[in-house]
Amino acid sequence: FGDQGIDLMVAQRALKEGVWPMVGPYLGVKNFFVPPTYYWLLTALLWIGKTPEAVTLFFIGMDLVTLIVFYQLTRFLVDKETGLIAAFLYATSDVMIVHARNMWQPHPVQLFLIASLYFLVRSRLVAAWGLYGIAISIYPSPIGLLPFFLYHTWRSVKHGRTLLLAAIGFLLPFVPWVLFEAQHGWPTYAALFTGSFGPMEYQELGVQFFLNLFGIVSEVFSPWSLHPWFAVLTIPLVAALFTVGFASARVLMSRDPRFDRAFSFLSPMWLFMGFASLLLYREMSVMWHRLWGFLPFVFLAFALMLRVGARWPSITYRSVIACLVGLY
């Protein structure tokens, strides 16, 4: 039923009639199209498994593989204990559990995105950019991480040939979409830079930017589920706790060389640049989908705070960590 049924019908038609789509599922925004990667992945899984039930099992398998890759990523960045904490946070997150209950378009994004981060931190740029391209072509929200990927590529690239292969790997999933766009007058370009989904005018930039920011923070911590105005009281507390927690973790990381690689990889300024770019668009009605690409960093940051906090003797800092866990 719903998106799942429609997507399976498209995959079934591709297998039975040979009609392969050139764009992906409709995202609810007029004339905004994405590459057909999700449909093609679903078609391949249906061809292997034969039944919708088998496809569901494949999606469960992807969840398990994602958890393992995320553990390996955090373990490489810090140590085994931090990897276990991050994997536990990911596996018990209400957001991830709710989204895993449906076989739908954003579902596979985390596997390809986290795998791309794993190869990025190990400076295997061709694999990193190829997987990153697949993640964006499935669902576009990881595009906000583009400054982050460019920054780490600039830090680690050594040969022009590597850049060329990485660019080819990144662009390959977009070839069918580009062909479709060229045949139909580039409708997605028009949707992005004009119309209701386009960027805001200069006059409304300041107000709408902060409205979008308020909406995102509200949805991240879900205070509106209790009472809409409760968000006004909760957000300053959350911001203060995050500031204290991250600043304290930063100080402690500087004393322990095990955390140097993790903090260097997180690169907050480059993450924020991509995050801020998401706030420049009017269409922010589904906050979690816009933030989908940033969720791995939320779990990484929490795992680092917990790992550092467990070693900090101050009762005040331990209280801050306890509050962060409680809010989570």
Topology:
Blueprint: H1 2-17, H2 37-49, H3 52-77, H4 80-92, H5 94-100, H6 109-121, H7 125-138, H8 146-156, H9 160-171, H10 175-183, H11 187-193, H12 205-221, H13 230-255, H14 260-266, H15 268-278, H16 287-290, H17 295-309, H18 315-327
Helix pairs in contact: 1-2, 2-3, 3-4, 3-6, 4-17, 6-7, 7-9, 8-15, 13-17, 13-18, 17-18
Walk me through what this model shows:
- There is one protein chain.
- This protein has 328 residues and is mainly α.
- Helix content is 71%, strand content 0%.
- The protein contains 18 helices and no strands.
- It has helices at residues 2-17, 37-49, 52-77, 80-92, 94-100, 109-121, 125-138, 146-156, 160-171, 175-183, 187-193, 205-221, 230-255, 260-266, 268-278, 287-290, 295-309, 315-327.
- Helix 6 runs antiparallel to helix 7.
- The longest helix is centred in the first third of the chain and has 26 residues, at 52-77.
- It is globular and about 65 Å long.
Key terms for this structure?
328 residues, mainly alpha, 71% helix
State the shape: globular
Mean pLDDT figure: 76
**Spatial gap, N to C terminus:** 32 Å
Can you tell me the residue ranges where pLDDT is under 50 for at least 5 consecutive residues?
Answer: none
Q: Could you describe the largest sheet, including whether it forms a barrel?
A: none
> How many helical elements?
18
Helix content: over 70%
Judged by helices, strands and strand pairing, the structural class is mainly alpha
Rg = 21 Å
How many individual β-strands? 0
Order of helices and strands: HHHHHHHHHHHHHHHHHH
* Beta content: under 5%
